[in-house]
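Help!! Second protein's tokens look totally different from the first
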Amino acid sequence: MTINKNVFNGDNLKMSNIAVSVIIPVRNEENYIEHCIDSVIAQDFPKKDLELILVDGLSCDRTAEIIRKYMKKYDFIKLLSNPRKTVQCALNIGIKNAVGTYIVRMDAHSEYATDYVSKCIEYLEKTKAQNVGGPMVAQGKTNLQKVIAAAYESPFALGGGKFHDENFEGYADTVYLGSFKKSTLEKLEVYDERLPCNEDDDLNFRIIENGGKIFITPQIKSIYYPRSSYKDLFKQYFKYGFWKVAVIKKHKKPARLSHLVPVSFALFIILFLALSPFWAISRKILLSVLVLYLFLDTYYSFKNERASSIANKFRLVFVHFILHISYGLGFLAGIFKFLTFKF
């Protein structure tokens, strides 16, 4: 690991100005939490200057039990309760109780390179950005999860955002997870608890609106494990689409074009399905667009090298459709929900 010596090194590291609080919201994560904690324990950052705060949203599995076992062995691990269960509340509880000068946000569905924390602090100091993080590099454990992970690299699936490019380095509008000075989060009044989803979008909007910068680098390495079933994937992206509308309305700024394509697609299907029984031309237009969509979906699915077998490439065709239609339907539902909502 290469550290900018003008930033810090092992000799000049001081608790007063380098202490780091790692915050991880958790809820029913018994299948992932051990690997996640192990990757934090393996960090090369000095443990005397590190605290790990896990904020549990009333898990009904073995998550809290597993964490307590680690707490008996490692005194820098803390467990806090989040009775409201949402990620935003968990993060705010963690930030309020954090003693670190720096906050590094992590996710239980991820594992991290041993220099993850060190690199976050290095690039926060080097770039003077208000939020620094790495790309979202998705991998899978089960066969279907591997297919879903393959979709995260496809521009057809998710619009080709910079934080999905594992080789991109530079300023961006968002990063995966993120790291901050605690003072930055306090000035921004932490996470908006009225938004139980898309909290990163909202926070990054506020950083940029206040003249701040967001920096992404592939030097900050982690692995993200996506949902492992079609049902969970649909629910996840329906929520993303739904709450994206709230973020747009709050900040009075339009979404990127890539965010509007899925809702246009969903609206088109609904409208032309409704018209098809009455006008033959509607059926022809609907069929033509669906055939074109299927062609593009199949092309990008078979082009994706991470879906190795023919069976997985066909699964990827379906995964693409789930991502698009769930996000689009969620966005459409959000338009109706937040039409009269005032922030």
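Here's the second one for comparison:
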Amino acid sequence: MKIFLDTSSLFKLYHKEADTHLIEQIFSGNKIDGVFLSEIAMVEFASTVWKKYRLKEIDKVHAQNMIGDFEADFGKYTFTHVSNAVIEHAKNLLSKYGAQGLRSLDSIQLSTSLSLVEECNLFVSSDKLLNIFFRQESLPVPDTLF
């Protein structure tokens, strides 16, 4: 099985949070032979880590270690290029779903996901709103998340 993870789910692989067990269940309950990420996950992941640090949920050493661990794992992932076509489609998705709350980076995640519809069997987000858009775009999502 090949899966797409957005950053909210990816982050749970490196930091225990509410619902981390649901992401872990996807990996333990399926034979995963490919994990696809949008290139923006590299930036979003680091941003999430430093937000946790600013909120004093983790210390600086833990933040640096998490980023280092993620970077060390880059070879485990297939990073999908954020092409001009992905950006253009993201703009169209904002026109379609912006009034419902779709945000800029999530529009890129959604657009990237849609570009991988032939590659991936499952699309995983721990973001409730993004999951709604995944479903509205008929992407297969886990039953266990939202």
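Reply: Different proteins will give different token patterns, so don't panic. DSSP finds seven helices and four strands in the chain.
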